[in-house]
Amino acid sequence: xxxxxxxxxxxxxxxxxxxxxxxxxxxxxxxxxxxxxxxxxxxxxxxxxxxxxxxxxxxxxxxxxxxxxxxxxxxxxxxxxxxxxxxxxxxxxxxxxxxxxxxxxxxxxxxxxxxxxxxxxxxxxxxxxxxxxxxxxxxxxxxxxxxxxxxxxxxxxxxxxxxxxxxxxxxxxxxxxxxxxxxxxxxxxxxxxxxxxxxxxxxxxxxxxxxxxxxxxxxxxxxxx
Amino acid sequence: xxxxxxxxxxxxxxxxxxxxxxxxxxxxxxxxxxxxxxxxxxxxxxxxxxxxxxxxxxxxxxxxxxxxxxxxxxxxxxxxxxx
Lengths: 225, 83
Fold this sequence. Notes:
The structure holds two protein chains of two kinds.
Chain A: H1 5-28, H2 34-62, H3 66-69, H4 76-82, H5 90-95, H6 104-109, H7 116-135, H8 140-146, H9 155-159, H10 167-170, H11 173-177, H12 179-184, H13 205-224
Helix pairs in contact in A: 1-2
Chain B: H1 10-34, H2 38-76
């Protein structure tokens, strides 16, 4: 996992210094004087607050990493496919993009907007709850078929990068023809007939094959035009 | 019981309790930094921070109680007047 090392060091320093002060107090039990109060203020206040701040930032950054998402066994196939250099799934193709990289799960599934981070974290807690209550003992093979999004994947997340306003995007006939449907979410970018499923191994093989064939035909027709 | 009337002998015990809670909070937070997985991160950001805040609150309570007790004791001392 990619950590910001300086923050780790800050957290470890604060933890070590604070723990030393507290252990020394517990062993020696000095009288409560002005000097001991100041030491305890550092041991119980200043240094733990430093540790909590560094730890929270580190924790927050860690939650964006693909290995974090893949740390629940039911997400291992999704994380492995994203990390597979030979995979042609949308998830993997985005994972190979430097702008997404190790954070591709978060980048595609995060809610954007003013309170996006908060709503994403609330959604993350929902995932943890669902894992503990429903999926903890479900075998991976079964989970891959049954896990689903709470709501259809919003095109707005794709449009965060692919705005649909650039000429190069509208030059593609399919884009131009379905512009309003794409913007309104009536047609999903990550559907079988368009850019393919983000995690195709979660779909039945015949559905994926049919979608791939349709897409190939459409691309061939586009090349002929 | 008002803060000033808290027996002074309780202070060291409360401070010791505060230190133990603080150490537990530190352990949870360090665990999440060293091994950031869902359970560790959630524990650090919930129980860890509650324990840390509680330990600081107990310390602040004891310090305020001790200061008030000292001030009350000084106020109750008879004033020494010079003839």
